[in-house]
Amino acid sequence: MELMWRTSHVSGGNAHYVEALYEQYLVDPNAVPDEWRNYFDQLPRPEGSSSHDVPLSPIRDQFYQLGKSRRRAQTASAADSGENKKQVKVLQLINAYRFRGHQKADIDPLDLRSPVPVPDLDLSFHQLTNADLDTEFQTGSFFLGKDKAPLKEIVQALDETYCRSIGCEIMHIVDTEEKRWLQQRFESVRSKPKFSPEVRKHVLERLSAAEGLENYLASKYPGTKRFGLEGGETFVPMMDEIIQRAGGYGTKEVVIGMAHRGRLNLLVNILGKSPSELIEEFDGKKVIERGSGDVKYHQGFSSNVMTPGGEVHLALAFNPSHLEIVAPVVEGSVRARQDRRDDPAGDKVLPINVHGDAAFAGQGVVMETFQMSQTRAYKTGGTVHIVINNQVGFTTSHPDDTRSTEYCTDIAKMVQAPIFHVNGDDPDAVLHATQVAIDYRQQFKRDVVIDLVCYRRRGHNEADEPSGTQPMMYSKIKNHPSARALYAKRLVEEGVLSEDDAKAMGETYRDDLMAGNHVANALVKQPNTELFVDWGPYLGHEWTGDADTTFDMKRMQQLAAKMCEVPDGVQVQRQVAKIYEDRRKMQAGGMGLNWGFAETLAYATLLDQGHPVRITGQDSGRGTFSHRHAVVHNQKDGSTYVPLENIKEGQPRFTIHDSYLSEEAVLAFEYGYATTMPNALIVWEAQFGDFFNGAQVVVDQFISSGETKWGRLCGLTMLLPHGYEGQGPEHSSARLERFLQLCAEHNMQVCVPTTPAQIFHLLRRQVIRPLRKPLVVMSPKSLLRHKEATSTLEELAHGKFQMVLPDQGKLDAEKVKRVVLCAGKVYYDLAAYRTENERDDTAILRLEQLYPFPKEELFEALKDYTNLEQVVWCQEEPLNQGAWYQSQHHMRVVADMLDNGLGRELKFAGRPASAAPAAGYMSVHVEQQRQLVDDAFNA
């Protein structure tokens, strides 16, 4: 924006001319040419403290003073109006239109909306009559272009502004500056700016493209599911305008999330996917060589287009059929791109989320995503939300059954987002609402919603017959002209173009389509690859559990000292001070290393090696069990200090935030972030492991299957506290069995580390190794401070992650008759029992990685026990949970590799099958724990 002010057309000898134009624009924006109106619309705020403000140049200062003078005049007029009772009523009428005009607006193309009585908009409600229509009144804050006007002119202007093709909901916004800005943008042009013939022809061309693709696919593949855009074709010129206008602001990347409807149209007509490629997919071509693949209307895509501000990279996110879950994934991807560009304000990367009406109102993740929009950990500088409003949701639904609110968009009011309801059959209104929406987002860095009220010409999909359940709506749709036909007729009648010109647009598009040519405007055929995320180093790697995670001892001790430093003046809370004092002793070799020290040191070493680290979760700064304390809170003033942000000069970004109380949106966000930042360690920590229940859809649809469906790599790490401590059914189990059930094709890693050295190397392996697979960690609770669960600096510096930990006792291998296999905390109970009962005939092996199952490593750990008679799997979880059902076949295979074929004799020791994850009574828990340990040795 600063560059705009340096250009010659607004400086030097042109200054007086531009000032005159601007003064004219303030009076009547439609009186200045399109390009100047757009230019003035996008001027930065002269007041406020947004990060992109620049010092006022002389011409900007003059513009500012003009605006101030006008506001003073309006304020004075409003003050004078208090002298006249009817004047007060007129001002109340103006306010009523601003509040409730949208309820009277003509926003439904099918005219199916039941009229809502709006008495506030009647003259009589405000004790005014027709006799007052010729009386002049002060206009107050209403942007009419003059201070006084006859009442009939005021009412006509209000009706044109708030009750035609755009219904504005902006009065729920608390911030006065935002509200006044929005009022000015709509009132100054009566919600209908005069677009140039060239602009309107371009809109018709994009409508022709939208309709042309749907007609072509309908004729070539009748009855085939494609979730077409018929009835909502104005979505295509809307998206085109958002991208082009955002590019004019300097945006470099746009990330788009949307459900099924219109996706193929967006891919071809906006992102520039080759029509011939789409046709090949309809004919059954595989998109990815390995994996299951996915249907056409779930696929993502990326491309570059040219805009007035330069090249812009577009990315359409992959999306499953859980309609709205993609929204927070998009936000995570955007935040990663902004972090990579050092763009905290969100000037360079724009998120767009496209929704269906029923899903927008009905699915809770939408509300969760709105709630994250202004939080420190998840904000992205505002999102443009577009609702393609079919007015019927899925085919059989009725608005009375899909929501309890008047509009499907009412949930957006929770974050005071402005909402523009716009008639999808009025492309000029759609264009204006779109321009205001993107300008608002760029100006205020907050979410905005466009409710594109349209219809669906076919059913929920092309194989559906909608008239069976929606006879009245579809009798209207059957005879309703398309938006393209209506707009073409209007432009011909207004002399903008001829009928032949309008017809030629459709024919030209169809010819290009049939020839297989690209049909997206401004597509860059040789894109700037600097705008892409480089996944090259992480592609094509086969599974391996090995990685060199060693680290220089001297440097590691230096980093350990740095992560324990707290500046003078930061008063540390007493228990936290003790933790840091113990860590200093650990760094010096005077104490065994505990979990919190090793985990934090893993982050420090990764930062030192150039890898960003991001950790979020409801207690991630402190750790749910107070083991981490990566964020130190000053007891004097509440300020915070993060030692890991101060490891060395020029270090990568270290981000740690306590999240708001969400799992679904937050985990989806972190998934999106991890799929866009391959060189970083991205960690989501659940408060308790079972809390991921609230985000099961993210695990099922993205984390476990994103690679096999879409070829989408992801290195996200999930820390899920797991362990039976007698806390009852809710906070014992991270549902290990669910993750193992989802494991196949080396899609993810499920690990249960039991020592500080193991978590140190496991976290480092996740980044150092070029393989990018999700990592699920059953992290501990009581082991965080268990006196036996310690490691040494040497194990950190020179070791590696061991998928199988051999027996730690000094046993004579020939005397061992039984091997107990286990994972997690139960190992320490087993080891204590063995010591107490002097059982030197039983070895205990720990499976630290349950998937991919370490068959070779387990065999190596077992083969020396030549007199083995029995192998037992011991777990704390009930029989029907934990690792038993999903992993026993792997264990049997390994046991059968031994000379005496012990696989058939593999035994189970654990809790009996249970509907609940754990016992709720401590006495039952203790007895069950005692019994399962005893069974492991004696059953």
TrEMBL record:
Its cofactor is thiamine diphosphate. The keyword Transmembrane does not apply. One of its GO terms (molecular function) is thiamine pyrophosphate binding. Residues 593-786 form the Transketolase-like pyrimidine-binding domain. Pfam families: 2-oxogl_dehyd_N, E1_dh, OxoGdeHyase_C, Transket_pyr. It comes from Franzmannia pantelleriensis. Keywords: Glycolysis, Oxidoreductase, Thiamine pyrophosphate. Belongs to the alpha-ketoglutarate dehydrogenase family. One of its GO terms (cellular component) is cytosol. Homodimer. Part of the 2-oxoglutarate dehydrogenase (OGDH) complex composed of E1 (2-oxoglutarate dehydrogenase), E2 (dihydrolipoamide succinyltransferase) and E3 (dihydrolipoamide dehydrogenase); the complex contains multiple copies of the three enzymatic components (E1, E2 and E3). The keyword NAD does not apply. E1 component of the 2-oxoglutarate dehydrogenase (OGDH) complex which catalyzes the decarboxylation of 2-oxoglutarate, the first step in the conversion of 2-oxoglutarate to succinyl-CoA and CO(2). One of its GO terms (biological process) is glycolytic process. Coiled coil: none annotated. Its EC number is 1.2.4.2. This is 2-oxoglutarate dehydrogenase E1 component. It is an enzyme of class 1 (oxidoreductase). NCBIfam families: 2oxo_dh_E1, PRK09404.1, PRK12270.1. CDD domains: TPP_E1_OGDC_like (cd02016). It catalyses: N(6)-[(R)-lipoyl]-L-lysyl-[protein] + 2-oxoglutarate + H(+) = N(6)-[(R)-S(8)-succinyldihydrolipoyl]-L-lysyl-[protein] + CO2.
